[in-house]
Amino acid sequence: MPDSTDPRTLADCFTPCAVVDREKLEANIGRMNAGLADFEVDLRPHVKTSKSVEIAKRLTAGHSGAITVSTLTEAEHFADAAFTDILYAVGIVPSKLPRVAGLLARGVNLQVVMDSAETARLVAEWGHRNNRRIPALLEINSDDHRAGLDPDDPEIFAAATILHAAEGTIFRGVVTHAGASYDCDSVEAIRRLARQERNAAVAAADAIRTEGIPCDTVSVGSTPTALFATCLDGITEVRAGVYAFFDLFQAGLGCCRPEDIALSVLTSVIGHKQSLNTVLTDAGGLALSKDRGTANQSVDRKYGLVCTADTGEIIENLLVASVNQEHGILSTADGSPLPFDRLPIGSQLRILPNHACMTAAAYDQYAVVDGISPRVVGHWPRCGGWQ
């Protein structure tokens, strides 16, 4: 919740508190922009990570202004902030179409996604009954990670035909997400998956076009493949989101360094357990999330790395070893004795998260700092909710 005291420094903030380092944020955004500059593609950033209008403005600067969302609440929130080109990148169902229609009536170019001819028929019928034309894309499976039709599945033609011919829909193109990039164990493996992602989307689009159906949008994206793609021929737009913050999981993939992570959680030391060689903080599973993605990587960061509160500098050999709902339990990575005298009760620390999207979801605003300064330069609200 917002601090009633209007804190001027991190020391004034109630904990736990989400902190964004603006310098690191802008450096991360600049890196993605520079990496895609040589390709003839638009960047449609995924705003589900930050859910912040202030951050979305920075993500879209120099691009078309298009964004990707994961909930209709996000779509409405960003439409209120004058974002008018929005892709809702989660499979649509008819019960959500009244809200889609409401956004379309406001002049928002809201596009929905589906991966079956059955859904295409249901959406088209709803649009026809309600005198609406719903912009729609087909999701393509590029890596067997989650949803989507295989690039050579005949159902693609059936679904595209329904969406193109029906009065209740407008067929826009194809979209895919290389979620399996999160399982890669090297940068070269990410590059291979980026080629696979691109090839699958282009193949599906070309096949649709051979049937005489226009396929204007060919959309791909994940942060790892967006960063390491070497060819985007035939692609019209790239979607990525977590690169704005990065996190320890992305660092484990080789997408960034821990020092590049722009999001941290400010926490207070609330107890010492010298017999257990642990320090207790007030940032537990709810404040950090219980994501343990780094457990499957070469370096396990447990529940987060610990940094100094004022400068954000990583404290060597100190991590969040475990969490309860409201408690974070710190210890040393190698089991050596903790420096309790350097971690007094009431002192503050910052925690770098494993999964920025999950961690940020616990908060309704960010305290913003610049670089190593503990001065709070702003408070940026964020959108919440899951619908």
Question: What does it look like?
Answer:
The chain is α/β, with parallel strands linked by helices. The chain folds into two domains: 46-240, TIM Barrel; 258-381, D-serine dehydratase-like domain (Lyase, Ornithine Decarboxylase, Chain A, domain 1), CATH 2.40.37. Helix content is 28%, strand content 24%. It contains eleven helices and 17 strands. It has helices spanning 22-36, 53-60, 72-80, 97-105, 117-129, 155-165, 187-210, 223-228, 248-253, 285-288, 356-360; strands at 17-21, 42-43, 67-69, 85-91, 109-114, 134-139, 169-175, 217-220, 237-238, 263-273, 278-281, 305-308, 314-323, 328-332, 348-352, 365-369, 376-381. Helix 5 packs parallel to helix 6. The longest helix is centred in the middle third of the chain and has 24 residues, at 187-210. It is elongated, with a radius of gyration of 22 Å. The two termini are 20 Å apart.
